[in-house]
Amino acid sequence: MGIKYYTHFIAQQDGGVEYSEYRGVVELLGRNGLVHGDREIARVLARSFDLEDCDIEVLQWQQLH
Fold it and tell me: Other CB atoms closer than 10 Å to residue 41's CB: what's the count?
């Protein structure tokens, strides 16, 4: 079982004009510990979307209990 987070973020490829906005619950599977900081959650989300972590702007995130 993974750790669940509510996330609200924008994904925009470097230099692109268009962006996609996402919000909802994501479950991080295979993680031994909690995510610490916006940049770490951005790296995890970027891998899921096949983007670079700089392409993700995290607006809000919080661990769900």
Answer: 20
Longest dimension (CA), the chain: 37
With DSSP H G I counted as helix, E B as strand and the rest as coil, what are the percentages for the chain, rounded to 5? 25, 40, 35
pLDDT tens, residue by residue, 8-27: 999 987 777 789 999 999 88
Give the pair of three-digit tokens for residue 64: 């769900």
* Interatomic CA distance for residues 18 and 14, integer angstroms: 10
Are 12 and 53 in contact by the 8 Å Cβ rule? The answer is no
pTM of the model: 0.79
Instruction: Provide the residue type at 26 as one letter.
Output: V
